[in-house]
Design a protein that fits this description.
Layout lengths: L3 H25 L19 E7 L7 H10 L4 E5 L1 H6 L1 H9 L3 E4 L14 H19 L5 E2 L8 H9 L3 E2 L4 E2 L8 H9 L7 E5 L10 H15 L3 E2 L4
Helix pairs in contact: 2-8, 5-6, 7-8
The structure holds zinc ion (ZN).
């Protein structure tokens, strides 16, 4: 027989573990809808997809990406990092001048620990990014994407208070991890159907040649065109 105090401690440990799991699993589940509203697809009756490009602007890629989008008459939403917007304001403005959307992707993109963000930290990251985009482009963001798609209840709460729609994705080539244009495009197109939100990145990857992101985008747009898809920004 175990003393009652030990049983009590074991029960409370089990309860703490269960409570932690209830918090952690949905937080680390990308684009999880359990803590709040998040869109990962959009309604459409046309053969179209929503192209989203994260982590810019970036002097190595943004201009080339904009040129390719123009060549293919494609539109995209850029989920920008506020710090980058302040560092390269001309590129943020170029995104807008080219008819694309610029939205909030936090100020400093702390990808490794944003999943555990407190309400205060999330508020700071989201507000500073909003202010950076507004001061540089004159545009007030109305959408937010969490770094790596990890968002806890505090992040959802801040986004709701700031009137930001949380946006996830449903077609990713994992180009933030393993980079090979053919593999990225194959993964994106594997399950592609109209109404999906495509995720691409424009940040530089260690060891990757400058312009590789643009190269992938060009090939992806060619593939989408060959399959009869157009890109759109849902209203
Ligand atoms: Zn990101």
């Amino acid at each position: 027989m175990y003393p009652i105090s030990i049983i009590g401690r074991q029960c409370s440990s089990a309860f703490a573990l269960a409570a932690s799991s209830l918090f952690l699993i949905p937080t680390l589940w990308r684009n999880c809808p359990l803590f709040g509203d998040i869109i990962t697809t959009f309604e459409t009756s046309k053969r179209e997809v929503w192209l989203t490009i994260d982590d810019g602007p970036n002097p190595d890629e943004t201009s080339a990406i904009l040129n390719i989008l123009k060549e293919h008459n494609a539109r995209a939403t850029f989920f920008a990092i506020g710090r980058n917007v302040l560092r390269w304001p001309h590129l943020a403005n170029l995104i807008v001048e080219n008819g694309h959307q610029i939205q909030n992707h936090t100020f400093s993109h702390n990808a490794s620990f944003f999943w555990g963000a407190s309400s205060k930290f999330a508020q700071k990251e989201i507000t500073l990014c909003n202010e950076a985009i507004l001061s540089v482009t004159g545009i007030q963001p109305n959408q937010f994407r969490a770094p790596v798609g990890f968002a806890n209840p505090f992040v959802h709460g801040v986004a709701e208070r700031e009137n930001l729609q949380m946006v996830g994705w449903s077609a990713s080539g994992n180009d933030g991890i393993s980079y090979n244009p053919e593999n990225v495009i194959r993964r994106i197109c594997r399950t592609l159907i109209p109404g999906k939100i495509i995720l691409l990145h424009e940040s530089s990857l260690h060891g990757q040649q400058r312009g590789n992101r643009a190269h992938t985008l060009r090939n992806l747009l060619l593939r989408l065109e060959s399959e009869g898809y157009q890109t759109t920004i849902p209203s």
